[in-house]
Design goal:
Blueprint lengths: L18 H13 L5 E5 L8 E2 L9 E12 L6 E11 L13 E10 L2 H4 L5 E8 L2 E7 L7 E7 L2 E7 L7 E8 L4 E6 L2 E7 L8 E8 L13 E9 L5 H11 L3 E7 L1 H4 L3 H10 L6 E3 L4 E2 L5 H11 L9 E5 L2 H6 L3 H18 L4 E6 L6 H15 L6 E6 H4 L18 H12 L3
Parallel strand pairs: 15-16, 15-17, 15-18, 18-19, 19-20
Antiparallel strand pairs: 1-14, 2-3, 3-4, 4-13, 4-14, 5-10, 5-14, 6-7, 6-13, 7-8, 8-9, 10-11, 11-12
Helix pairs in contact: 1-3, 5-11, 6-8, 8-9
């Protein structure tokens, strides 16, 4: 029998100051695909061994092993659980039949201990749901720092996605799985991170010890997670990106960044991610929303065409746009008038979709094109100057690349950043604030 929602669970134990934020997130979770919500465990108990299901479903979990309750949470007024060698056993809470259709979503908030822990080479599990012929689990990948891997294994078919966003800040992780759509999509803080296709068929019964948070096993705490978890939830439905984003944003604000450009943004996409990490905090992440409009080989005309064709369907809100377009125009010898018209079109398309967006336009440079790069720098400055507000000049590659690069120091080939260039570029963009 279902129990009624206990409204006391919505009120933060620290008092009523964050009541609206707590209630908003709780209401959002409970109102999201309500008929398919298997369970929602805030993990905010002050004491005891019961991890209460905040939904009306009465599917409580059980704390076991070495863990600490009532730890600092994500900033929404609730506390969280810090794990050392323990787990939350969810076996009694789950229903194997709920996963039979291969439609499900797993969500949890996680925070690692520190930078050294992220690179210690030890495998850890944040979440494990295991059946005879079906498994979904999130694990810290042992040989790569800051890598979280999400697996979906069903019917003998193993699929996984790699997320280079496991760190000592709070992150919301969600894995939305749809066998009918033949896709599994991973999200970080409400932003689509990666997808895999062609899934296997889930079947079988759940294992009594292999359905838990905080370890592989709830009895022996194998591969224990060493960090803090909060707000775990499962649906027997593949949530949409908009639904996952809404849950995240009900708990905290997010700066959505849209990256636009060419291979300088995609050949080593680390610089946008690194720049966002430099700007992010526990209480306000910076995330790619929507995904990057950037493809190797694009000129300004290609980027403009992609924005005109695709922006109308975007559901994510971008607060910032980082535009680095022009390297291929330099190589192709695009005229001043044509480049300026296309750049203005890009800016206008972004502003039409997102009226309050702030747009920064980089000034690109490529080796052997010093004169042409300097001319394009002036073109970009002239276009940006036509906007009274909301558009600014971004990093100037004619300064930090032309004056310091020999084709090796910051780039692989005089165009594309190497690891040192990625770090330098990220710092340039982060300095814009």
């Amino acid at each position: 029998m279902q129990r009624p929602l206990d409204l006391r669970r919505i009120v933060p134990r620290s008092g009523l100051q964050s009541f609206g934020q707590i209630a908003d997130m709780t209401r959002t979770i409970l109102a999201t695909q309500t008929a398919n919500l298997i369970g929602y465990w805030p993990l905010d108990e002050a004491a005891g061994v019961t991890a209460q299901d905040a939904s009306p479903n009465n599917r409580d979990g059980t704390y076991a092993g070495t863990l600490a309750l009532a730890q600092t949470g994500i900033g929404d007024g609730r506390t969280a659980v810090k794990f050392t060698a323990g787990a939350v056993n969810l076996y009694a809470a789950l229903n194997a039949a709920a996963f039979a259709a291969g439609e499900c979503t797993f969500m949890v908030w996680a925070k690692g201990n520190d930078a050294a822990h992220m690179a210690d080479g030890v495998n850890e599990y944040l979440w494990d749901t295991f059946a005879t012929a079906g498994q979904c689990y999130f694990g810290k990948y042992p040989s790569v720092a800051n890598l979280l891997r999400m697996y979906y294994v069903a019917g003998g078919v193993t699929k996984y996605v790699d997320l280079y966003r496991y760190d000592a800040r709070w992150n919301q992780y969600a894995f939305s799985i749809s066998k009918s759509g033949e896709i599994a999509a991973a999200y970080i803080n409400g932003s689509l991170a990666a997808t895999v296709a062609t899934l296997g068929v889930w079947s079988g019964t759940l294992n009594a010890n292999l359905n838990c948070l905080g370890a592989t096993r709830a009895d022996s705490y194998t591969n224990p997670f060493k960090g803090t978890l909060a707000h775990g939830a499962i649906w027997s439905k593949a949530l949409t990106g908009a639904e996952i984003r809404n849950i995240h944003d009900a708990a905290r604000t997010c700066v959505g960044v849209m990256v636009c450009g060419d291979s300088k943004s995609t050949a080593a996409y680390q610089w946008p991610r690194k720049a966002m990490d430099l700007l992010a905090s526990d209480t306000r992440p910076w995330e790619p929303r929507p995904a990057a409009y950037a493809t190797s080989g694009w000129k300004a005309s290609d980027l403009l065409a992609a924005l005109q064709a695709g922006l109308g369907a975007e559901w994510a809100t971008a607060h910032r746009a980082w535009v680095n377009i022009g390297a291929n125009d330099l190589s192709a010898g695009t005229s001043e008038a044509t480049y300026k018209a296309n750049l203005a079109g890009i800016i206008n398309a972004l502003r039409a979709k997102y009226p309050t967006i702030t747009i920064a336009v980089a000034r690109p440079w490529i080796k052997t094109k010093n004169t042409e790069s300097a001319a394009m720098k002036a073109w970009i400055g002239a276009v940006v100057a036509t906007y009274a507000s909301g558009v600014q000049l971004g990093p100037d590659e004619t300064v930090w690349l032309e004056n310091g690069d020999d084709g090796v120091t910051y780039t692989l080939d005089g165009i594309h950043y190497n690891s040192t260039g990625v770090t330098a570029a990220a710092a340039q963009w982060a300095a814009l604030g």
